[in-house]
Design a protein that fits this description.
Length: 169
């Protein structure tokens, strides 16, 4: 189920996609998206001088989270997402990059002295800005503006034809 060093395919797809396609769910995720996720994990480790076990980049957690907020549609979103989710059903005709396996909403936490702490969207954007060239080389083209994503960071790898990161929202 691992599709890269730090990610399981179930973190990138919702339960209905996993149930229908299993390990073939990988077909719905663009390679650049995985590359950007891995780079983000690595750069957070570097910035905070932590080992891998002390960094969490959460997309979907439906397959292991038993209480609290369960994320199912922060990665790939099939058409059923716009019927099953109360927030998403408000925009059933969405052409979101999530529908193409190209958009991800990440929530990042780090553990210092045994305590997990969530990084702010501003902090995540600053890490990406610090390593802009590497993120662009990995395929990142777009970030959603901080005011639109107060508790997560949205990125995608859409074709913008630009040589810098585009901010949308």
């Amino acid at each position: 189920m691992k599709i890269s060093r730090h990610y399981d395919i179930r973190e990138l797809v919702p339960p209905e996609t996993w149930k229908k396609w299993g390990t073939s769910s990988r077909w719905f995720i663009r390679e650049e998206t995985i590359d950007v996720l891995e780079l983000l994990h690595t750069k957070v480790q570097l910035e905070y001088r932590l080992d891998s076990d002390n960094v969490r980049v959460v997309i979907n957690n439906w397959h292991y989270q038993k209480s609290g907020y369960i994320y199912k549609y922060s990665g790939y979103r099939p058409p059923t997402a716009y019927v099953n989710d109360e927030i998403l059903k408000k925009n059933p005709n969405s052409e979101s990059l999530h529908r193409q396996g190209n958009g991800m909403d990440v929530k990042i936490s780090i553990r210092n002295d045994g305590v997990w702490r969530k990084l702010s969207t501003t902090r995540v954007h600053n890490i990406i800005k610090k390593y802009t060239h590497e993120f662009i080389s990995a395929g990142l083209t777009t970030l959603e503006k901080i005011k639109m994503t107060p508790t997560w960071t949205h990125f995608d790898c859409r074709n913008t034809g630009e040589s810098s990161i585009r901010y949308v929202g």
